[in-house]
Amino acid sequence: QVQLVVSGGGLVLAGGSLRLSCAASGRIGVRYAVGWFRQCPNKAREFVSAITWARYNTYYDDSVKGRFTISRDDGKNTVYLQMNGLKPEDTGIYSCVLNVQGIPDNYYSDSDWDDYWGQGTQVTVSS
């Protein structure tokens, strides 16, 4: 079974930073892609960022571009989301999702990813 363990959430003041981790295990191969989604209050689940196996291509939603950085450590099968310059509107539950065979064509849609999700972690940004 593919398992994803998420960590790194917490409470931070506006302008602060957090780093989220998504550790994958199981039969994931080497061509997997990992995406980050968040569920913010009064909003639908939305795409945040993603990274692929091929040339470590990265993707960002415009709302976080320039503030968040995604990376991966293949030796640990772990993907990180470094979040800088956090804003109150970034508050939400963050979760990672894995696609075994690269990134989905419609990666902004959570339903297009394989059904391998981490448990989610709460990020709260106070003003």
Write structural notes for this entry.
It is built from no helices and ten strands. It has strands at about 5, 10-15, 20-25, 35-40, 45-50, 60, 70-75, 80-85, 90-100, 120-125. The relative contact order is 0.31. The mean pLDDT is about 95.
Briefly summarize what is shown.
This protein is an all-beta fold and 127 residues long.
Number of helices: 0
As a percent range, the share of helical residues equals under 10%
The ordered H/E elements are EEEEEEEEEE
What is the strand tally? 10
Enumerate the strands of the largest sheet in spatial order, edge to edge or round the barrel: 2-10-9-4-5-6
Structural class: mainly beta
**Poorly predicted regions:** none
N- and C-termini, Cα separation: 41 Å
Average pLDDT confidence is: 95
The rough form would be described as globular
The largest sheet is: 6 strands, mixed
Instruction: Tell me the radius of gyration.
Output: 14 Å
Q: What is the percentage of strand-forming residues?
A: over 45%
